[in-house]
Predict the structure.
Amino acid sequence: MNLRDEKITCIGVVGSGAMGIGIAQVAAVAGCRVFVYDNNAAAMERARTNLGSALNKLQEKGKLSDAGAILNNVSFVDSVAALKECGLVIEAVVENPDVKKNVFREVEKVVSDACVLATNTSSLSVTSIAAVCAKPERFLGIHFFNPAPLMALVEVVPAIQTQPELVEEICNLMKDWGKTPVVAKDTPGFIVNRLARPFYGEALRILEEGIADIATIDWAMTEIGGFRMGPFTLMDFIGHDVNYVVTETVFQAFYYDSRYRPSIIQKRLLEAQWLGRKSGKGFYNYAAGTAQPEPIKNVTLGQQIVDRIVAMLINEAVDALYLGIASAADLETAMTKGVNYPKGLLQWCDEWGADYCLRRLDCEYNLYHDDRYRASFLLRKHAFENKKFL
Ligand SMILES: NC(=O)c1ccc[n+]([C@@H]2O[C@H](COP(=O)([O-])OP(=O)(O)OC[C@H]3O[C@@H](n4cnc5c(N)ncnc54)[C@H](O)[C@@H]3O)[C@@H](O)[C@H]2O)c1
């Protein structure tokens, strides 16, 4: 059910960095009038240039008929006051709670009571930002993935104050924009950043324990596991500044649950500013002409690595289902569309059998006596009852 008779067609975007300008592009290409505001004039100028060239490239590829007309529909404005006509304002400023809260205090002074307010935060509590608004019932999270024009997935995250009907209205709007929305509870990491933690964390444990080196783990996860990138290649690609901070934030937000414990190896890379591809060095060395480490292509070892990491990923997905973070269908969509997993984790569990997955985790738990390997209650239940998830 939509709250409004008319569709939202005028969009405000606050913050014109990588995410803000990507979101502006998505809305503009979908036919919306867009107003972009950034408090850094130079950043906004860069964003305008980048948007122009992105739209021109799409036109050259035949994916747009009139890049100029779309660009004309995007106004770069020098104050929040210019957002007054917007029906939806999406904030994509730096990941700092105080800065974000101040943005919404200012926006709420100028927009109408009907305007929907949204944050693109990756890691902050949507509820805590909503709490500073005079009308928190019109506030929610709309979490796009990077790069927003290319990634289909959008996590729609109602705060506990959000008017329930708004969730469906925004999901419909995202579909109109060509996106695939999933609904996630306002909990740390929402769906993707929560479920994906073991992809990195368990790979780092295997490395720390000396079971295999980075090249072998990456080989196993791509060649045997079917993932597009191995964990170490992917961490280097995301950047250790971003990936480590997400892990640490999720770990703290879950009251230091050992399932999400960060790795000292990764912290040292961050401290050395070996951030990955963008700094030329991370787990791998990207300097031209550098020989890359060769994997040990031992299929038995490779299968053990895949099983250990995938069992942990499945356990996260099952536990998220158990705790009502999202529906089974949305959990599957999130991981296949948000991080391009070869299949959904619940489907993976069904193919393995809950019993096999449980035995895999219990084996780790008995060996390590570490709480991170505790199986979700729902996985244990499904194993005992021999049930499938899908
Ligand atoms: N980069 C990603 O992969 C990614 C993915 C999903 C969500 N996010 C989230 O999106 C948000 C933005 O991330 P980003 O990567 O685009 O950051 P960014 O650093 O590229 O851009 C942030 C922009 O906000 C502007 N800004 C800062 N304070 C402002 C204010 N008070 N008013 C107006 N503009 C202000 C800055 O000038 C900058 O241009 C963050 O909350 C981040 O967690 C990022």
